[in-house]
Write a structure and sequence with these properties.
This protein is mostly helical. The chain is built from 21 helices and no strands. The N terminus is likely disordered.
Length: 443
């Protein structure tokens, strides 16, 4: 599970609640305990803490995208190594994200989020001072591991401490995440210039935001730990026990595989965009600062559409048409980059931003394609972990093609080509059926 689950909420039979809110309730209800007594200050401080943590979930990636050329030159990276670095986020999300539930059970979700923010801050503090690609990669991986843990557990904390305001808090979390993504993309280059022009300084400054988050999460983690102990004692006194439903075997479901592959291809496009889009524009003659703003435009499109697309999908029996339309927007954007990258730069950035909203669509589909809470959890974990693994080679291959071809014609052709199977898989995943039905399981 990851940050994408923030929009999946439970929709009971006969409910008119939006599909994305419905599915997340299912996930949270199946994986998190109810809130216990807590200090009066904890709620307001948690709201600020959640916003700060969400703001830190993408600057490590998009700030690097804005300064990628300077970083590559400064560290002497080849195109292949640079492509590997753009693949690392997906790998870390796949590998470290799956450890979050176990760590949460052992230490509590708030403590793990605090540790995750500490890992983000430490990695961001170290990587500007590295002198080679290996050290830079290791420091980046440390930050990304912390992001992966936080991705999974912030929705758990929302459900645990704000059970009557899940929708509001999830919306706040989503907006903060998108704001952090866009802010880092747009502000990194001009702030770097204002601070002397060194790419090392430009990357280092984002560590300060993570340090602030750590300082706020330390008292939160202590208070939450005490509440966890009180809850455990109360449960022991009551003699209660929680039994987890095994759920359907999702690997037997064609829809689950379609969702996993669709997730993987849309994630491939997203990470290629975050890692390489500024460089595409810069190679076409666009200034570095404008290229960063163009990436921010692409990223910020997800803010309003993340609310529109899930609601629309929840009112439809078959969501394949939405997947097809989003894919066509992406194809148009890549064709524009191929033929007139600088002349139509703003239009291509907008079109690719719309296409990248396959992300909230696939999260909504995860909630719609399973009936039971256990089914949603199983499907979400399978689709996202498998999808992130599928997405790993894409940015690496783009970097290799860019280096060996000396331009963007072949990489852009590949990007556009990947949208064809993505559209087909989205149509398959959008069919009105559930994994329980396909696997012959009861609710």
């Amino acid at each position: 599970m990851s940050d994408e689950e923030i929009q999946t909420l439970d929709r009971p039979a006969g409910s008119n609640r939006p599909a994305p809110q419905a599915a997340a309730d299912r996930v949270a209800a199946a994986t998190t305990p109810h809130a216990t007594s807590q200090p009066a200050w904890l709620g307001p401080v948690l709201i600020v803490g959640i916003v700060l943590a969400a703001l830190n979930l993408r600057p490590a990636i998009t700030s690097l995208g804005a300064l990628f050329e300077e970083t590559r030159t400064g560290l002497g990276m080849s195109g292949t190594v640079a492509g590997l670095i753009t693949s690392v986020p997906a790998l870390c999300f796949a590998v470290f994200g799956v450890t979050a539930p176990r760590l949460s059970r052992r230490f509590g979700p708030a403590a793990v989020v605090c540790a995750g923010m500490a890992a983000v801050a430490t990695g961001l503090l170290i990587r500007p001072f590295t002198n080679g690609a290996v050290g830079f990669l290791a420091a980046s991986s440390l930050s990304l591991a912390g992001i992966a843990l936080t991705n999974v557990l912030l929705p758990v904390i929302v459900k645990r401490y704000f059970p009557d305001r899940v929708g509001t808090m999830i919306g706040l979390y989503s907006m903060a995440l998108a704001a952090g993504t866009s802010l880092a993309a747009a502000a990194t280059v001009p702030l770097t210039a204002a601070l002397g022009g060194s790419w090392r300084t430009g990357l280092l400054m984002w560590a300060s935001l993570a340090v602030v988050a750590v300082l706020l999460w330390l008292p939160i983690a202590r208070a939450a730990r005490r509440a966890d102990r009180a809850q455990a004692a109360a449960a022991a006194d009551a003699g209660g026990a929680v039994r987890a439903d095994a759920g359907p075997r999702v690997v037997r479901s064609r829809t689950a595989w379609a969702l996993a592959c669709y997730f993987g291809l849309q994630a491939t496009g997203a990470y290629i965009t975050m890692g390489w889009l500024p460089q595409i524009f810069r190679d076409a003659g666009v200034s570095a600062s404008t290229a960063g703003v163009l990436l921010a435009v692409t990223m910020v499109m997800g803010v309003p559409l993340a609310f529109v697309i899930p609601g629309l999908a929840g009112r439809m029996k078959n969501q394949g048409a939405i997947a097809a339309v989003l894919g066509v927007f992406g194809l148009t954007g890549y064709l524009g980059l191929y033929f007139a990258p600088a002349a139509g730069a703003w239009a291509w950035a907008l079109l690719l931003g719309i296409s990248n909203c396959a992300f909230p669509l696939v999260i909504t589909l995860i909630g719609l394609r399973a009936k039971s809470p256990a089914g949603v959890v199983k499907l979400s974990a399978f689709a996202q972990s498998t999808g992130y693994l599928i997405s790993i080679p894409g940015p690496l291959l783009i970097g290799a093609l860019y280096q060996h071809s000396g331009g963007w014609d072949l990489p852009l052709a590949l990007m556009a080509g990947l949208l064809v199977p993505q559209i087909a898989l989205g149509v398959l995943a959008g069919r009105d059926r559930t994994i329980e039905d396909e696997c012959g399981m009861r609710d």
